[in-house]
Specification:
419 residues; mainly alpha; Growth Hormone, Chain: A; 2 domains; 79% helix; globular
Length: 419
Amino acid sequence: MTIHLSQIKEPAESASTVEKFKAQKTLYSVMLVVLFSCAGIALPYPVLAPIFLNEISPLTTFADLPGKISLGIILAIYPLGVILGSSVLGAASGLYGRKKTLLITLVLTIIGYVLSALAVVAESFLMLIFARFITGIFSGNISIAKAIAVDLSPTLDKTHTFNLVNATGYIGWLLGPLAGGLLAVYGLDAVFYLAAIALVIALLSVTFFLQADASELNQSNVKFSQLFSKQNSFALLANTKIRRIFLIYLLATLGLNAYYEFYPVWLVENFNFTSLNIGYITVVLTLCMTITSVFFVKKLKLIMGLKFGAIFGMVLMAVLFSLHLLLTETNVWPVYAITGIAIAIFNGLLPVYISEQYADIEQGQLMGLITTTFSVANVLMALIGSALALLGAHWAILFGAILLIIASVDFHFSQEDIR
């Protein structure tokens, strides 16, 4: 009896197709979580400032604090929650299973948004602080989503999946403020309720379409309390090599956040941009980030590799940030479009480099450290950049450019080229 080679290959090819289909379903489910999570995070921002700066109520005049101080507290408490949550949730997903941990955190995030809405209705400042902190903690589950995306390798290309997740996040950050602005007429509580509803959709998607973990780590010797000591993402920094790459990542994200946080201020200072104009140029920036992530970052990786591609993104950002000394109201638009491309290259390649370089480390814990580092950079640059911006917003952005150059030089000389 003769057995043809094609007959042997057929079942293997069929199994491969089934695995790929399952992986794609998982990826789409994760992308939905990231989309609605990022949109939910961004929804309240267009509404919070007008309320705290222009309205007088028990919510906005707590302890006779100035409106700007109260707003600053509300804005700062959320990323502080993200820092705490990201450092623990990624590791928790490796110990207790990605799907289970993601489901629990989605439910708790939904509760956080509902509590935020109830705090607004009750006009309770302290309750709103508590609700935003809780929401921030469990919104750290974006690190779980990114870990799931990298887990799909080698069935799906890691760079491609990671960049699709990034692109989805960019779209969420774009749609969130637009939806929040449209809902502003119905009140801040309506904005929080919509964020909760969006995450209910994400919760249903995870429940029905995300594959259960094929395997989990042995939990018998791991206590829940150890998540806050030995198993949190910061524990990885005990490794000297990991500490070095994350110092580079911190410097680079400090530079990026200098731009994120102060380009609106610079546009107002130099060109008297209105909120509408800032919104339009942000759309241009975000669309370029999204298109680059989906269609071009993987190709750049094949041409340049992860290391030199990431360096190219950092140096390009630094050059573009430095151009703020020369930009006019006309050429700022194309320069911001190119800036979106540079940001997408950096965001799409350096985290994948870290994942590939330390593939032996639990990826949930590693992605948690990446998310936490970005949030720490966000808080630090808000403080440092605000002081520099007193002299002019361009000084904060130029400081960001300097940090990016330092990060790229250190990265070039301290890290190996993995292809």
